[in-house]
Structures are given as structure tokens and as C-alpha cells.
Amino acid sequence: MTTLSLGGGRVIPAKYVPVLVTACLFAAMFVVGGIRYDGFASGQVVLNVFIDNAFLLVVAVGMTFVILTGGIDLSVGSVVALSTMISATLMAGPGWPPYLVVPLVLLIGSGLGLVMGYLVHAFDIQPFIVTLAGMFLARGLCYTIGTDSVPIEDPTFTAFAQTRIDLFADLWISPSVLIAAVVVLVAAYVLHYTRLGRAVYATGGSEQSALLMGLPVGRTKIAVYTISGFCSALGGVLLSFYMLSGYGLHAVGMELDAIAAVVIGGTLLTGGTGFLLGTVLGVLVLGLIQTILSFEGTLSSWWTKIFIGLLLFAFILLQRLFSARTRP
Amino acid sequence: MTDHILRMSGITKTFPGVKALQDVTLSVRRGEIHAICGENGAGKSTLMKVLSGVYPHGAYEGEIRFEGETCEFGGIRDSEHAGIVIIHQELALSPQLSIAENIFLGNERARRGFIDWNRTNFEAAQLMERVGLRENPTTVVSDIGVGKQQLVEIAKALSKEVKLLILDEPTAALNDDDSAHLLDLLRGLRDEGITCVIISHKLNEVTAIADSVTIIRDGRTIETLDMATDAVTEDRIISGMVGRALDNRYPPHEPTIGEEVLRIEDWTVYSPSQPGRKVVDGAALTLRRGEIVGLAGLMGAGRTELAMSLFGRTYGVNISGKVFKDGKPIEIRTVQDAIRHGLAYATEDRKRYGLNLIEDIKRNVSAAGLSGLSRRGWVDEHQEYAVAERFHKSMNIKAPSVSSVVGKLSGGNQQKVVLSKWILTEPDVLILDEPTRGIDVGAKYEIYTIINRLADEGRAVLVISSELPELLGLCDRIYTLSEGRITGEVPRRDATQERLMHLMTKGQE
After folding, report:
1. Which of A11, A213, A215, A319 best tests the B interface by mutation, with the highest count of B CBs <10 A?
2. Dist. CA B407–CA B118, nearest whole Å
3. What digits encode the pLDDT tens for the residues A108-161?
4. How far is A204 from chain B (nearest CA, A)?
5. Touching check for A298 and chain B: CB below 8 Å?
6. B37 contacts: CB under 8 Å, gap ≥ 6
7. At B451, which helix (H) or strand (E)?
8. Average pLDDT of the segment spanning B4-21
9. pLDDT confidence bin for A6, thresholds 50/70/90
């Protein structure tokens, strides 16, 4: 009974259940969409979801790291906006070249994350408060740079925005998707195959235990906020490819979308369990809701929020049941 | 016929697999101070929880008669209504509220639904006067010391018109002055007609204050002694507390003791929450290879604090003293340092501090020794799996696979995971804090066998335990700790429970 379950009835470990549920949900949405609407059931629809949400995916990857440690990062949306604003302004005004602007923006984003992580660790302040302050700070900085939308006319950026990478059979993606895919793969690798990744899971699982196991809890916390800051800045760069403008009102509320994607992807808000694949699926589910609504045509875009709201309820409930079962 | 305010008879309380109380009888006379003595885990606190309704009527067997009436308490509110108030060892005050607010918490002085602050503070001041607490009623509780907080608890009990006051280890966290004041206060309350039941490990206090004492051992009432007529001494109480024969619950072990591996000198640790209070005071210990050394002490003696302060300063402030490893002085500032110097510490609360319950066996086993399983930050998963499999077999961890979630294992198997985790770091010194707490008898034997094996491999093992028989059955040498000081060092052949208990209850001169 304890040994022979390898053959026919393989049991799925409980930790994979939420990811599987999300995957099934995504598949079901796709099938329903395909039945209801003409032209929905094509590979390009899925790829378009990626194209339209590449920046969100990158931001959500950073958020996954933070949430896995049991923290939260509310500053991501503002950092995205700040990144678009800095890139646009530096290229428009002094005419800095993109290969200087992009690294600078990434550096600023990571730096902001580093400072927030340090505050969380060194002064033992709740991440919610620290990153809330970071959120106001970054958003405020956008407006000190400029209150209007700044267009991006740099040829490299516009070229990037218009490039199509052709795949087989008429399918195509944008360079942003490629970048996002690389980010996801690297992040998944780091989470599952490095000591940093282990420390992230262990910190989220039980911070006290992790400390007494000699894991570098402090460094890990600082690292995840830095990673999240970097991802937000990179997300900002991708958003400027997509929008071709910098604006203080870009990405308002994106932190909540990112958190929603991570949670729908099955990562526990209390930390310790979750997978990057889940986050990817979470972003896809959010994107597919929007796609379905645009195919529907008559519904207002607020229905997106309503569906996301309902989904979040469902998933939090699922996690509750799931964690109630594992913790006696 | 004596007037008994309380009679508990035939009290039996079972937890899954354990009989915590068995046919316990307790009779308390009106207007006396009645002490309850017993070893850690003898069932004192369980008995008090039965009495105060924490375990409601129906959750136990037996009868409680209070003031001549049979009581069936459904909860703490019922028992408080009857006039029984319990003050737990961990004080139940709301730290951010004022003294007056705390005194009347849940019992507010209100008029038509609004709190009458004048009356609240006025009546609080009166109660504080009664218990000798000279503070402003509006002072926030977290701003006053533990001793005064204890008085707030008593004032709170008085506000509920208490007839029977139960104090669980009231002086465990207090310094001598505060303890003396508290004992005086209890005498005063007795003279006012309030009956007190006091649970205490400090036998000198018991003999000084109690009118009678009931001794509990292994969940049974052993005897009730009248201090006035029975000429009770501390020795008399101790022999009642420990009188129990050893059987072969411990695997035989012939130690091969080698050289000194760890020595600490003049180790002093201050409490992080109460500035100025020494939790460990000038302790000195020596551990040798192949030796199992016990550390005995009552609750609050500073055992865990000593271990944790040594293990990378995970407890305490202003830690001072010297540590020698293999004769050379070393500095241990962080847990990483401790692991690098070959120290390992398995905590007493393995669920909260020793394991990541939502992860699997494999990742828990590898957590502390990850540096040995990885190169330049990348974890070698095959090696990790192989290592986990090795421990799965050698430690006889009963789980379907190394991918089983640790939270679902039994206590004994969880402890084996904790031990595996530390063995992987190749420690020279293992500090095991309550290694068999919450583990059933069969698994305990396995854990003892593992501990013996660790010693035979040339490691030094320091076992901290509240169970004296365990220390006597397992250790080659036993240190006793009392109020932060090492009060004795007893080799196995000279060690008896009575002798250890004497040393453990020895107060500071």
C-alpha cells in the first residue's frame, strides 16, 4: 500500500494541484472561446496574449520571487512607469542612445528594489509598508520628470516595436515576448536549481527555521526585492516598446495585476510554495479573459476586472482548502 | 470536618495516545495557599486547565465541586463567573493597552454602552493599591516590567471578585525582589480570605509560603502534605516528585570518550525583552568527543537560551564569554559561523523552528548542508536526492519517499529529518534540545540509538531535556542549570534524580 503506487494510479503531489487547476482553466477558456467565436482557436491568439502582456509577465516573475519569500512588492507598477518616463525623456531630450538608457533604467529599478529590500530586512518593517512607500516615491518621481506623455521616436525603439519574429505557419511574436521568455526561463532555473532559489522557498516556508538552518535569510530578502525591481524596470522597457511613450500614468494598478497573476498561478501569498510556470499560466489566464471580452465585442472592459475578481476569490478559496488539508 | 472550597475527584484526561491525568484528586481548604508540585510534564498545568474550563466539561472524566456545588464549566467565562481565576505563566495582557484598560478588559466599567473612563481609572487605582502596584493607571502595560505585569494580572483577578486564584509558575520570570513582593502579596490575599493555588518549581518558595502541598507525578496524585503537621522539607517534596524506577527504555551504550572538542567559559547572556536580566550567568561547560552530556534544568532555567546564544547568537543580547573549539578560541557571530565551526542545534520546537513543514523530506534534509551539495550556487539535484535517500534508509524515516511533505510525518520521523539535516553538515558538536518531546515511546528508543551512534562516531552530543530519567538513561555526564547558573556537574555513576533535582532547584545564594 505504501510502496506500490507507481504503476497505474500515480498520485499527483498536492503542491502541483493549484498549477494544474490553472492550466485546466486556461485550456477550458481556450476551448470555450474556440467554440463561441470564429477565428479564436488559433495559435496566434495565444501568442497575441503573450505579445500584449510580455511586460506584465516580466513584472510578475519578479513578484513571484517576492511572494515566495512571504513578502509583497507594491512598487512594481510605479517602477514600470518611472522606467518608461526615464527612457522616453533621456532619448527625447538629450538624445541618449538606447544602449545607455536601457542599462541605466535597469540599474535604477534594481537600486530601488535593493533599497526597499534592505529596509525590509535591516529594520524588520513589513514589506507592505516599505513597498507602498516605494510605490508613492516612484510614481511621484515620474511627475517631477514631466506631467505629460513623452513620445519615443528613437529608431532602435521603434524598430523593436515593429519587428515581427516569424515562427512556423504564419505565427509570429514580438522581440518583447522573446525577452520575457528568456526572463522566465532564467528565473525558473534560478528558483529550482540554485541555492538562492532554495533559500527563497525556505524563507517563505518558515523564516525562523530558515534562520536556524543557517540560510542567509537577510541576503535572500534583499535579493528578491532587487530582482523584483530589476524585473519591473525591464517590464518598463518592454512597455515603452509597446506604447512608444513614457508617461507617469502608465501601468497604474499593474502591481495588483501582477499579484493576481501570481496568486492565480497557485503561489501561496504566505510564501513557500508556488512555481514560475504557474505565474506564466496566471498571466495567460488574465490575458485570455481580455481577449475573450474583445471577441465578445459588446461587453465593457470592466468585465475583465469582474472576472479577475471572481477568479481571485476562487483561487484564494482553493488555496485555503489546500493549505487546510496539509496543515493538521 | 474541614471546610474545603474545592474538591476535584477522579479527574482523568486523555489526549490521543496519552493519559495526561489519571484519577487525580485535589482538595483545597478555604483560605489556604495550596501548592502543586511535580516534574515538567507531570500534569499540573493540564489539571489547572481542567479546573478553569479550558478543557470544558465532557472533555475529561471526574467531578469538580466548588463551594459545595458540582461544577460543569463550559469555558473560562463559566469558571471566572464562579470565582476561579487562573493566571498563566505566559501573561495574558494586551501590551498596548493601559493598566486600567487591561484590568477591566472584557469586564468594562460602562454606562449605557459607553466606557466610563473616570470610574475605570478610579477603580483601577483602588485595585492597584490593593496589590501594591505604584503606577499610573493609564500607563501602557508594555512600559512596565514583568513583575508589575504580574501584579496587573492579580489586580484583574481581584476585579472579578475572585474566590480561588490559581497562579501557574508566577515567579518563574521574576527577579528576587519581585518574587518576594509577590509572595507577600499572596499572604496578604490569603488573610483577606482568598484561596490560592500555586504551581511552582521553586521549592524554597513552596516551603516558605504554602499551607499544604499536593504532589503529582505521571498524571496521578501521589500525596497531599500539610505543611504544619507533616514537617515538610524540600527533600520530602523532591522524593515525592521523582520516586519512579528506571526500566530499560534506553539502549545500552559504552562510551569511548576522547579529547575535549568544545568548551565555553564565563558565558553570560542578557534577556532581549527585559534589559538587565541575566538569563545565563557565567556558565562554563566542556564537551568531549564521543561523550553524551546532559543539561538539566527546570523551565525558565535558561537551557534553551544557553544553547541558542551559543548557536550563532540566535537568542539574547550582550552575550559575553569565551568559546574554545578543539582548544582554540573561536568567535561565533552567526548561524553560518556556527555551522562552519561544526556546531549543530536541533530546536525544542521542531515544527516552528526546525523544519519547513510545507516542503518535502529531501529539501529539508539538504537545507543546512546545501553548500556541500552545490557548486557556485547551483544545487546538484541528483546528489541531493542520493543524500536524502541515504538518510531515508539509514535513519529509518518512515515515509513513502523522500518527496513526501514533512508536515505529514509523525513527530519521531520529523525529528529524524531534523537530525539528518544536521548530520549532513558533519558537525563535531550536536546540541539536541528536547530531542524526544512529543514523540511516542518506540520512536524515542530509535532516537536514543541514533544519539548513541552519533557519539560513537566521535561527535560530542549535548542533550537538553526536561525528563530526568531520559538524561539519566542516556548521558555520560550531566550538568544542572538553575536560574542561568551551572549549579552542578554529575557523572553518570553518581547521578540520581534526587541529586539532580536538588541541584536544579538550588536558588542563588
Report:
1. A213
2. 52
3. 999 999 999 999 999 989 999 999 999 999 999 999 998 888 888 888 888 888
4. 9
5. no
6. B44, B199, B200, B201, B203, B206, B213, B214, B215, B216, B237, B240, B241
7. helix B441-456
8. 83
9. very low
CB–CB of B407 and A14 under 8 A? no
Burial class (CB in 10 A: 0-12, 13-18, 19+), B349: middle
Q: Which three cell numbers stand for residue A243?
A: 506604447
- CATH T-level assignment (fold) for domain A44-293+300-322: ABC transporter involved in vitamin B12 uptake, BtuC (1.10.3470)
For residue B227, the one-letter residue type is: M
Q: Residue B11: pLDDT above 70? A: yes
ipTM of the complex model: 0.73
Which 3 state secondary structure label does DSSP give A167?
coil
Single-letter amino acid, residue B110: A
Q: Are A214 and B408 an interchain contact pair (Cβ–Cβ within 8 Å)? A: no
Average pLDDT of the segment spanning B431-442: 81
Match 493540564 to its residue by C-alpha cell: B46
Helical packing angle, A17-36 and A276-296, nearest 10°:
20
- Does B368 contact chain A (CB < 8 Å)? yes
Q: What's the sign of the alpha-carbon dihedral B269, B271, B277, B279?
A: negative
- Higher per-residue pLDDT: B147 or A188: A188
How far apart are the CA of A3 and the nearest CA of chain B, in angstroms? 6
> For chain A, what's the residue count?
328
Domain ranges of chain A: 44-293+300-322
* Residue pairs spanning A and B at CB distance below 8 A: 90
Query: Is B367's CB within 8 Å of A328's CB?
Result: no
- What does the pLDDT look like over B278-326, one tens digit per residue? 889 999 999 999 999 999 988 778 899 999 999 988 888 889 999 999 9
* Candidate from B314, B370, B421 with C-beta closest to A211: B314
Q: Which of B352, B357, B374 lies at the smallest CB-CB distance from A195?
A: B374
- Sketch out chain B's domains with CATH numbers: 13-83+163-243 (3.40.50.300), 93-159 (no CATH), 258-342+430-435+460-509 (3.40.50.300)
Distance CA B466, CA B452 (A): 19
Cα A34 to Cα A41: distance, rounded to the nearest angstrom? 4
In angstroms, rounded to a whole number, what is the distance separating the alpha carbons of residues A75 and B338? Answer: 37
Q: Can you read off the three cell numbers belonging to residue B110?
A: 460602562
Cα-Cα-Cα-Cα dihedral sign, residues A120, A123, A126, A128: negative
3-state secondary structure string, B12-80?
EEEECCEEEEEEEEEEEECCCEEEEECCCCCCHHHHHHHHCCCCCCCCCEEEEEECCEECCCCCHHHHH
CA distance A324 to chain B (A): 12
Q: Which of B334, B358, B371 sits opposite A272 (nearest CB)?
A: B358
Rounded alpha-carbon distances, angstroms, from residue A254 to A181, A302, B26, B158, B185 = 19, 15, 65, 56, 61
Give the minimum alpha-carbon distance from B377 to chain A in angstroms, rounded to a whole number.
Answer: 5
- Tens of pLDDT, residue by residue over B95-122, are 888 899 889 888 888 888 888 888 889 9
Residue A274's region, left for phi above 0, alpha for psi from -120 to 50, else beta, is left
Residues in chain B within 8 Å Cβ distance of A328: 407-408
Q: How far from chain centre, in Å, is Cα A302?
A: 21
Q: Search chain A and give the residue with CA nearest B357.
A: A205
Band of the pLDDT at A301, cuts 50, 70, 90?
Answer: confident
Strand order in the sheet with B260-270: B278-288, B260-270, B317-325, B328-330
Mutate which of B359, B398, B430 to disrupt the A interface (most A C-beta within 10 Å)?
Answer: B359
Picking from A310, A304, A274, A309, the residue whose alpha carbon sits closest to that of residue A291 is A304
